[in-house]
Amino acid sequence: NLRHRPSRHPQVAEAVREKIASMRTASQLKLAIVVILFICIVQNGTLLGVTAALFRLFKDAYVETEETNHFLTDGHRAVLQTAAASFSLPLETLPVMGLEQLNKIERIAVTFSSGGGTALRGSFAVSATVQRSNTWAQLSLNGGGSVEVINGS
Questions:
Q1: HSE, side-chain direction, 13 A CA sphere, residue 52
Q2: pLDDT digits (tens, 9 = 90+) for 93-103
Q3: Most CB atoms within 10 A, among 60, 64, 129, 134?
Q4: CB 124 within 8 A of CB 143
Q5: How far is CA 149 from the centre of its chain?
Q6: What percent helix, strand, coil does the chain show, rounded to 5?
């Protein structure tokens, strides 16, 4: 209406036109912000849905630990698979172990203390075990050599 009617005050008409244009721009910016906010909400919802679906799909693949027992369970806590039990014993106990237990030994870990305070650690695979008496046991190592425990030393 202002464009068709001549105005006595052209500065006032121009100010009104600028105000109307700035109000249109502000409403367009508000609409753009609402659209962008809606897109962000949809994207976050989609991401949440995909994450929940993947979690539900792979929920059976976690390992629980109770003390030293390791086992794989499903979502209802039913045991699916267990790991072999392993434990550490001092070498002095070798002669008093039964032959069945001695034959289950797969590795030994040893620590050598030098005079300078430096400790050397090593791990060796065991190829064979021999129990010569209830105070003497021998472990043959894969790389050659053996470890003998006689009378606890």
A1: 6
A2: 888 888 888 88
A3: 129
A4: yes
A5: 41
A6: 40, 30, 30
Residue-wise pLDDT for 20-79, tens only, equals: 888 889 889 999 999 999 999 999 999 999 998 888 777 655 544 444 456 667 767 777
| Distance between CA atoms of residues 61 and 72, nearest Å | 7
Residue 10: strand pairing partners: none
Residue with tokens 């109770």, as numbered in its chain: 66
* Burial (CB count within 10 angstroms: exposed 0-12, middle 13-18, buried 19+), residue 25: exposed
Q: Which two tokens stand for residue 20?
A: 């109307």
The C-alpha atoms of residue 109 and residue 130 are separated, in whole angstroms, by 18
Separation of first and last alpha carbons in the chain? 110
Neighbours of 95 (CB within 10 A): 20
Instruction: Tokens for 89, please give them.
Output: 């014993």
